Amino acid sequence: xxxxxxxxxxxxxxxxxxxxxxxxxxxxxxxxxxxxxxxxxxxxxxxxxxxxxxxxxxxxxxxxxxxxxxxxxxxxxxxxxxxxxxxxxxxxxxxxxxxxxxxxxxxxxxxxxxxxxxxxxxxxxxxxxxxxxxxxxxxxxxxxxxxxxxxxxxxxxxxxxxxxxxxxxxxxxxxxxxxxxxxxxxxxxxxxxxxxxxxxxxxxxxxxxxxxxxxxxxxxxxxxxxxxxxxxxxxxxxxxxxxxxxxxxxx
Length: 251
What we know:
This protein is mainly alpha-helical. The chain has helices spanning 7-14, 21-63, 73-95, 104-117, 129-145, 150-161, 183-215, 236-244; strands at residues 70-72, 180-182.
């Protein structure tokens, strides 16, 4: 059983203080590492999805199929889950702006605010307007993506009125699970996710430029494979963080 943490200790661990230049370097390095790991996973998922699309395209050419190509929904759903997980994590890492969250938007917001107030204790590059706009867009997307908006329900009702969706019966409640989806739906998932991936890569590049600006030299990233297995000790920081946030028994 984990010992009960004191309120003072929880407060100390709840929010990272950005005061000195070293604090900003540590904070940004953590962001770069986490973002890089997620981008690598997302690229692998996108590459595998591209192979699936190519396989079905080749089958169409070989068999001379003239109808709409279909893909098992279970396979499509697997990639939706994988890419949604990548997307959600990257949106939080880049676009979140809550006080106790790690994010690049929050990092730049604090930097830019202190530059305007002339209270920043060190020099760092400024980002261009395009990157600022992307960060604002990702913040909006993050807020939309990580909850289920009522506008989704209203949009579905509107499509039912237009005859584009099946209406809901009051009793029994019917839940539809399509067995297949069209290849065009799979391609749309790939194109949308690949576009998002490239935007996040652009932000990741900007974060590395910021890091270079802070340390005064070009940043190098070495991705190193290690043979040691991941053990439960790896998750100790996650468990401690959840306890600090008051979350118990669910993760």
